[in-house]
Design a protein that fits this description.
Length: about 220
């Protein structure tokens, strides 16, 4: 009788405990998915901004060499800002573990594999720093461009600029600046809305600089 009572009490207790325990399965994956989506969006924006910067740096180097007085001045002034932008975005990408797909190797090699005849020329803004060194990146995420900016298109544009002289070059360079300025504003505006504080701060700073700059 005692064993039966003891067994019954154990069964009742176990039943009570099991009925009171609920599995708290929260839809935490929703937050994770949102965070991952934001990170991918940030990575794509950083890639596009970097590719745009590289294209403009190469164009500004040509403008400094063969542009007229006004175009040459634009090229020289932009080179300073763009070099700083390039350094900062590479550091930011490294910190966020984002692989920047557009980068030129050291030694004067261009994205299409050609080598500059004088790689140290201009310190050389026609060659953009690669990802090596302290300011480089060791990324884990590599994403496709969301703005259609790519090295192949940039190479073609740079080659076309090299063939132009005088007023034809100045006009083409000015049109490029206007077109890419609109693209940069769009990309920086999106990046400035990021939930990532570092990305937002970086984009907001350069968006303000861009909006205050005059051609």
């Amino acid at each position: 009788m005692m064993n039966l009572l003891k067994t019954s009490l154990i069964a009742i207790t176990a039943s009570a405990l099991s009925s009171s325990v609920t599995l708290d399965i929260k839809p935490a994956s929703r937050h994770f998915v949102h965070k991952t989506s934001q990170q991918n969006s940030d990575a794509a924006l950083l890639n596009d901004l970097n590719a745009l910067c590289i294209k403009q740096l190469r164009a500004s180097a040509i403008a400094s060499q063969q542009g007229g007085t006004k175009a040459g001045d634009w090229g020289s002034r932009l080179s300073v800002t763009l070099n700083k932008f390039n350094d900062e975005i590479r550091v930011l990408a490294k910190n966020k573990k984002v692989v920047l797909s557009s980068a030129l190797p050291e030694g004067g090699q261009r994205p299409d594999g050609r080598v500059d005849s004088s790689p140290e020329n201009l310190r050389d803004t026609s060659r953009i720093k690669n990802g090596g060194g302290e300011a480089g990146y060791e990324g884990t995420k590599k994403v496709e461009s969301i703005g259609g900016i790519n090295d192949a298109a940039s190479n073609a544009l740079i080659e076309s600029l090299k063939k132009l002289k005088g007023n034809a070059f100045d006009k083409a360079y000015q049109n490029l600046l206007i077109s890419d300025r609109q693209t940069a504003q769009t990309l920086l505006t999106k990046a400035a809305q990021s939930s990532d504080r570092d990305v937002k701060t970086f984009a907001s700073k350069y968006l303000q600089k861009l909006n205050s700059a005059k051609l």
